[in-house]
Amino acid sequence: MSRKEIVKLIEEFNTIIIHRHVRPDPDAYGSQGGLAEIIRSNFPDKKVWMTGEQDPSLSFLAVMDEVPDEAYQDALVIVCDTANQARIDDQRYHDGQKLIKIDHHPEVDFYGDVQWVDTTASSTCEMIFHLFEEFEKKEASLSEEAARLIYAGIVGDTGRFLFPSTTQKTLSIAAKLVNYAFDRPALYNQMYKTPMHVAKLKGYILQNFELNEEGYSTIKLSKEVLKHYGVTASETSQLVGLLGDIEGILSWVFFVEEEETIRVRLRSKGPVINGIAAEHNGGGHPMAAGAKASTWEETEEIAAKLKQVCKEYKK
Ligand SMILES: [Mn+2]
């Protein structure tokens, strides 16, 4: 139902501005850019903008536009991949005529005139493909570039089809997308290249993580450690999966010290951890969530809660 409504609104409006979350990942860029590309290639007369801060590490996917304030006056605004309003990049998102939310995260904030939230989707890009299928009924076509962007987001959010969020639907969409002639090996190379300084920090993490008998693991990355390796706090986001394949680890947490707070990245292979995140200024998926701690004492509390959920899970 929502899909039809969204298609109708896109057809109605001549100006469409697409947002996504701060600290973007390939799914954020892919869904934003993929949707923009679908509209641009099928409705050449419409003005389509993408907004948000440019992340140089994702420039191989898309380049953001400079959107003037006036553009919002008559615009349809679409926010992709963002559960909470505070995380929407470019807070002008509520300045348009109509607002649409498209997301696969568990609902945090209820926002937008039209909301399409599907927590069974592996990625927002998967949803964008379904949206395209609605356009396809009206003879729309998918460009090679749109296919590349959507594929990148699915690959990113499923950990290259590894995570349990990967469903039969996900794979059948991927199977369709690989029929397009975009350069898949090049895309993988761009997505998974590791800069030398980050590789060295990986070594530090593997040398220093703690594994407890309950099956939970913690690693602290203090400002000093990050400075020593020349890695920014945000660059560590790509390393969180690192501990996932180590024998005996059920769930794990990265504590990454930033300027004012300590960023908490929780991952799990069984125990549900987003409840812990919600108690510490965060949220997310049952098996992958993020939070914020204000002190190292608070990180101890989080570790204790992680211990508890692992213990209960093992029972
Ligand atoms: Mn996503």
TrEMBL record:
Domain of life: Bacteria
Pfam families in the record: DHH, DHHA1
Domain DHHA1 positions: 228-312
Domain DDH, residue spans: 16-154
GO MF terms held by the record: nucleic acid binding
Protein name: Bifunctional oligoribonuclease/PAP phosphatase NrnA
Source organism per UniProt: Halobacillus yeomjeoni
